[in-house]
Predict the structure.
Amino acid sequence: MRDNSYQAVMARKPEIIRQATNIDYAGFESGGLAFDYERMMQQAAYDIDEMIRIQRQTGVGSTPLLELKNFTALARHLAGPGKGARIFVKDEAANPSGSFKARRASVSVYHAQKHGYPGVVAATSGNFGAAIASQAAIRGLKSIIVQETFDSRGLGQPEIMEKGRACEAYGAEVLQLTVGPELFYTFLLVLEETGFFNASLYTPFSIAGIETLGLEVAAQTRQLAGRQPDAVVITHAGGGNVTGTARGLRRAGCVNTAVVAASVDLSGLHMASDTDFNRKSFTTGHTGFGMPFAINPDRADVPRNAARPLRYMDRYVTVTQGEVFYITEMLASLEGLERGPAGNTSLAAAFALAQQMGRDEVIVVQETEYTGAGKHPSPQLTFAKENGIEVRRGHPTENVPGKAIVIPEHPGQIAAREVDLDKVRHSYLCSVLPKLDKEKPGCADIEYLAAETHTSAPAVEALVHGILSGR
């Protein structure tokens, strides 16, 4: 009889993942720290024309780019003379399952079907699960979604519950678990017992599927505004959104477009903590995922994560939960659009950043997801109050993650707060250098780390010297 203890299943993880992804990750390793990221993306995924063809088969992509003229007018009213960039949103709610996750799911499910897998499995809090279930339904495959849903009291957030219902509506079997290590253990067991494909958020198929989004942003902005986007603001959680969109922008020649990652500031809350799990009112797009995946991208359910956000960030900013709730209401009342909190995280940041940019410039926001009964501010704020969170009006600087959601009194109070990327790079290097077991990184490692940290080899060498000297 097979040993299904936690330790035994974790020990079988490399073989389970290899069988469930059809990727030999070891073939891209080169020793030391480095691995050949670009070769992995080129060989394991599909070329861009093939991805567009795959996505068109199931109605994914070609979503509209909308100009928010009333947002722009308000930003210009609040900004200084000559300031106030035009604000556009890429409306990804128009995808079949209502979010940009359909792009990454479409390629993964196609790959699973092409290679004869009987079904697909995904571990996710929801939007990606719904996208996988939707794409699997179109292609006639079975799907199982493993969802981290409850704290130990059996309470789940309205947004997570809604996402679970969406997965079931598309025909998926949904396994709802409590927060903690149970998720990954169960996920591996399901993969092993079913022989289904691992539709991970972090495979090359998943990340490459988002590149079409960056391509469309570039082409539509040129068509509507007559220029490349000066900045694209992308909600950052696990890194796939930033990585895929930025790679698509590069493919389209947008070398001068600033890639701005944006997250809700949930500093101090631990995502795997039973007590903190329901003290955050956002299930994604927050620093609880954004920071660890920037610092240690290979903490994923595959050996080498294809989402490597620090490679592509020009800036990283945060906003508060209260600011996102405010901008959600503002989008509905000024532009007649209701969309979910993940995309409105970027929109809150973009509204503030637009006021610092020239009137002839263009800022584009990825409006990543639909909204619905569980995603509206009302059920989210009610749940927060029920879990002891103070909800009130005031200045956003009074917001305290896990304790107080402070909704602005005026749109002029909304701000995008800069994260020091040099500190993030330092933390990244501190997380990877111990893998060398006290050896100094070689030339190949330095070049790899320069790409990983979106900086230069001399800059990496200086940072590494400082870290090793301090040991």
About this structure: The mean pLDDT is 93.
